[in-house]
């Protein structure tokens, strides 16, 4: 029996087996690991491709957006070069936050995301950018083209979440958001992460 393309006989690895997206860097695929309803941090298991429980959320703060990564990206030397205060890339796929008007309460899903900006985050000296995107064809957020079109309260919530989500009483953290950038720079970060991926894993 023959199967039509792009039929997968086995489940593809979300990081390595899925395409970057239909029109990168403007529209990319986002594999979602965490929803705004999750009180546990899930993270892709790099070996198997399944979601693994990483840890319970450490504070009462919850991610205000869908959160995951862009397949076939890697934060290496090119991404680090776009983050002046970083010593290296974090060696992970490029993270992405996706805004949706309708609540999405399931993870382990793929969606099309339209890129509007990002956060230049440095975590313990490593470039750990967070791309900000809108669910493609969203009825309410569809007119948002760049980060300046978004309510600054929502952008502020994203900044606050990532500055504080690793906090533990009595312990110091080394996390900073050095810049909130727009769509143009976000495109540069995505292109750099695609090239870093090719360097690390091949085309």
Q: How large is the count of helical segments?
A: 3
* Strand order across the largest sheet: 1-4-6-9-7
Strand content bin: 25-35%
Helix content: 10-25%
CATH 2nd-level architecture = Alpha-Beta Complex
Overall morphology: globular
CATH class: Alpha Beta
Task: Note the run of SSEs as H and E.
Answer: EEEEHEEEEEHEH
How many structural domains does the protein architecture include?
Answer: 1
Number of strands: 10
Describe the structure.
- With 203 residues, the protein is α+β, with helices and mostly antiparallel strands.
- It has one domain: Inorganic pyrophosphatase (Inorganic Pyrophosphatase), CATH 3.90.80.
- The chain has 3 helices and 10 strands; from the N terminus they run ββββαβββββαβα.
- The longest helix has 19 residues, at 183-201.
What keyword list fits this structure?
Inorganic Pyrophosphatase, 5-stranded mixed β-barrel, 10 strands, 18% helix
């Amino acid at each position: 029996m023959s199967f039509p393309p792009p039929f997968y006989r086995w489940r593809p690895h979300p990081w390595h087996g899925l395409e970057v997206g239909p029109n990168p860097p403007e529209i990319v695929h986002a594999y979602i690991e965490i929803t705004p309803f999750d009180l546990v941090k899930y993270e892709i298991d790099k070996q198997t491709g399944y979601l693994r429980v990483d840890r319970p959320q450490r504070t009462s703060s919850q991610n205000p957006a869908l959160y995951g990564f862009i397949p076939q990206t890697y934060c290496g030397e090119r991404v680090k070069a776009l983050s002046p205060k970083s010593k290296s890339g974090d060696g992970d796929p490029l993270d992405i936050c996706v805004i949706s008007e309708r609540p999405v309460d399931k993870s382990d899903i793929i969606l099309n995301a339209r890129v509007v900006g990002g956060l230049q985050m440095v975590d313990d000296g490593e470039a750990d950018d967070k791309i900000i995107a809108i669910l493609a064809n969203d009825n309410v957020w569809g007119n948002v083209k760049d980060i300046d079109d978004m309510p600054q309260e929502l952008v502020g919530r994203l900044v606050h979440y990532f500055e504080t989500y690793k906090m533990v009483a009595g312990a110091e953290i080394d996390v900073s958001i050095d810049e909130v950038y727009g769509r143009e720079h976000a495109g540069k970060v995505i292109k750099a992460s695609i090239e870093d991926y090719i360097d690390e894993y091949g085309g």
